[in-house]
Amino acid sequence: MRKFILFVTIVLLLLSTVDLCSTGIGKSIVLMPFYDESGYRGPWQLKYEVPEMIGDMIGGADEYFFIVPMDSVIAAMDKPEKKNIFKRVFGLFLNKKERQRILTDSELLSVARRVGGDIVVTGVINDFNFRRWGGGDPMIGGYKSYTSKVQIEQVRVLRVSDGRPLGTVRGEETKNSRGLGLELFGKPRRMDLEFYSLDSLDYGSKRFLNTLMGQTAVEALNKVHKELRGIIARPDSNWYSAQKFKILSVETGHAVINAGAADGITPGDKFIVFASESGVRVGKINVITVWSDHVSQTQIIDGQDEIRPEDKIMPEF
Q1: What pTM does this model have?
Q2: Which domains does the chain have, with CATH numbers?
């Protein structure tokens, strides 16, 4: 009996530890499967892999964000309606991909709440293609050009707590490789090999990222990532408290703080200053120059005579 009680106690402790670790103090971001309207017919599951890459960009750039794994998101979604055997066989002959059902905002929020999300993001993959054009007779002497295009549209951001839309962003990139030498006597060029072998590469792999298509995808999704951060990046008060941001030094009219680019600080951000010991508000500062990842210079708006080194700072929301 004692062994059983000990076992149950250990399990409960482990579960509570996992829950605390997964919750954290930052924002939990839920990237839903995107709607794939690109016409792509290859093996990649773009509706999952595109938002996953955006999530990697967000999570890799700032530890404040926790990206809910796509497997957890999929598990929290309603199961799709089963098709009968005739529809399934007919669909195979048509070689058509199953069209995704468009979720309402209430359904998006419901899924996000099931996985503990603070922000939910959805979007549309409008274009994801690699095309080849050519001229002349390739068996004698010809040329080819290649164009890759990635277009992500209607990337909507919703706050889970109240369902409020926070913004909509997009990202697009097109790359060309034109006429890099003539083809003589049908000899395949490097771009030909890349064109024909692309679908055999794992999406997001190192080899994929080195291709023209991969580079186009990264740049387009990075544009989405940067726009998204502009909407979701401002941390809340709990995060600022946990980071223990403070005044490093004070001069006439200016103060230096221990927060910078890596902490999401940008010129124009305003902070309220609180005395380190009493917690009483003593002033207000405005960021004028971000010097490094964790150092910025600010202008003292209020409290020149009261602000001291080690005083705590909190954002003015």
Answers
A1: 0.63
A2: 19-125+149-176+199-232 (3.40.50), 243-315 (2.40.10.410)
